[in-house]
Amino acid sequence: MAPLGRPLNEPTPLVAGRVGLRVVRPRDAEPLRRLLQANRDWLQRWEATHPSGRGPVPGTVSMRPTIRAMRRQLRAGSGLPFVVLYDGRVVGQLSASELSGGALQAGQIGYWVSQHVAGRGITPVAVALAMDYLFGVIGLHRIEICIRPENAASLRVVEKLRLRYEGRRASYIHIDGAWRDHECYVLTREEAVGGVLARLGTAGA
């Protein structure tokens, strides 16, 4: 997959009601580290891991190198890394990655939010904001979200946004120490006429 071939401009914050997305910044390093540490038990089942077993435990090391790598993706036109905001406070992350140009014009979205704000409708709004930006401003044609079949909370997000189910990808990503199957959900720009946020029937959480 070829990247978009151009650096991405850093968008102004995307906001709907109490929910917002803002491109991650170096100053987010410590708030994100604290969130990851506090949510270790909540997030571990869904965290990507290296097959070798190498890599730090999330929340135990500085996030600054990770944030620098994310912002390099922005400059390379291959990724768009956001923090999720609720009432202006950082409560999670959302990343649009594997952004591709050429004949594909596609990308993927991944996300997490802190347990202390789960169940408030934050994630569907955040995902809708990101998808509308990727379709309307970046000009992507296709966006997919891949979810472990055991992750009921994430499955509810794609159900609320009415993404189309495309099938199961066997042993797709190394998660929590093993290769895990994922369910693939997709939306194309033609399917999102009127905007993804409008599918929620709300201006925000």
From TrEMBL:
Matches recorded under PANTHER family: [RIBOSOMAL PROTEIN US5]-ALANINE N-ACETYLTRANSFERASE, GNAT FAMILY, PUTATIVE (AFU_ORTHOLOGUE AFUA_3G00765)-RELATED-RELATED
Descriptive protein name: GNAT family N-acetyltransferase
Gene3D superfamilies reported in the protein's UniProt record: 3.40.630.30
Family affiliation: Belongs to the acetyltransferase family. RimJ subfamily.
Domain annotation N-acetyltransferase: ranges: 19-190
Origin superkingdom: Bacteria
InterPro entries: Acyl_CoA_acyltransferase, GNAT_dom, N-acetyltransferase
Upper lineage: Bacteria, Bacillati, Actinomycetota, Actinomycetes, Micrococcales
UniProt keyword list: Acyltransferase, Transferase
Pfam (any one): Acetyltransf_3
